[in-house]
Amino acid sequence: MNKCAIILAAGQGKRIKSNLPKVLHKVCGKEMVNHVIDTMRAADINDVNVIIGKGAELVKERTTEKKVSYSLQAEQLGTGHAVKCAKDFLNGKSGIVVIFTGDAPLIKNETVANLVDTHIKESNKATLLTSIIENPTGYGRIIRKDNSVEKIVEHKDCNEHEIKVNEINAGMYCFDIKSLVNALDKLSNDNAQGEYYLTDVIGILKSEGEKVGAMVTEFEETIGVNSRSELAVAEKILRDRINKKHMDNGVTIIDPASTYIGIDVEIGQDTIIYPNNVIEGDTLIGEDCILYPNSRIENGKIGNSVSIQSSVIVDSSVGNETTVGPFAYIRPESTIGNNVKIGDFVEIKKASIGNDTKVSHLTYIGDAEVGTGCNFGCGTVVVNYDGKKKYKTIVGNNAFIGCNTNLVSPVEVEDNAYIAAGSTITKKVPNGSLAIARAKQTNIEGWVSRKGQK
Ligand code: UD1
Ligand code: CA
Known about the structure:
It is found in: Cytoplasm. The protein is of the alpha/beta class and 454 residues long.
């Protein structure tokens, strides 16, 4: 059976009070609409169309990596109207279309797959996801007759009986494409909000004698985010799920309530994570690592047995058995080797640091290639910027850079070279030699008493 999906993401989301379109707000580091797209893909639905309207360009930009197609809903006249705008996408297609709202990021892959299976098994024309909750305020209500779904009534359109129903519409459906397209033509906007409701399609199909089914699922999965408080609720639920997954895989998380791991992060067994770590993006952390408190890692590739403490690592890799921090900042495009020490108050930017090199304290290395087995003394600065352009510094293997050295780029320090403390290096230091680039010390005897300083 042919399958495709439509994701509704054209609304501004008035209730979230934001300049950013609602579906671009992030939950556990990923935009809500991208969560939904990824879930579709995980459920093996590859042909995905996103309905865009409010902030269309931005939504497009933030979803480009996902390789979806788009339909424009220039004016937001309701969820039914939104699906009508995908006419070109549906044109000529047969089979199943799955329709989800872009503001419900918690749905599980297997639930989408189950919805599709149920739809096929029961030969339905429409199958919807519902859930049962204590306080259904704001949600569409599922109205059943003789136990089978009759129609959906929006909260604002409910009569006194309907409003008490606590089975709600999750806003997630599976339709036979032909039946959906026919029913969409019959929608009216004669309701409390003056909108074309997608939910009315259910009643229309039912009144035409078509088979409609429903699948009840956990409310938690179906939460639609309309406000900032609901955003925080979704964040917490997903965070708990992610942390549990890692713990089940053998990662120790000392305090899950204060550990923030993005949904796409992978972590190896026996890694230990202390509180207040934020691990985001496409980060991969190896086995047996220790993440002491207070680090942020975004798109980091971290090897095995690495220790990181109170540091920031962005778009960079760190090799096995390396230690980072406390208070180190590894900026984008850096590659740190194995068994390296990046100590306190060290900043690395767009630099590679070879295996077994020690950069222990108070040092800046930017736009540089550093070999293996080097030692950087305290307070080394790579002077990579002349106010207009950035230049490159190259340090070979086993070099010893004395404390408080300036390496004025572009410059090269060859293998086994030594640099005396306090030097400002502007010329190449040849293999195996010592460079001293500082004024010779002069002692002026008796100066203090002559000056009357004492
Ligand atoms: C919708 C359902 C409701 C259900 C709830 C579940 C309708 C009429 N109501 O209500 O039954 O219980 O979801 O969360 O469908 N959108 C567009 N174009 C529009 C309007 C909305 O693309 O013209 C998009 C929004 O960006 C959003 C989604 O559709 O992602 C849902 O819209 P929203 O206004 O949040 O609908 P609800 O009132 O929550
Ligand atoms: Ca909603």
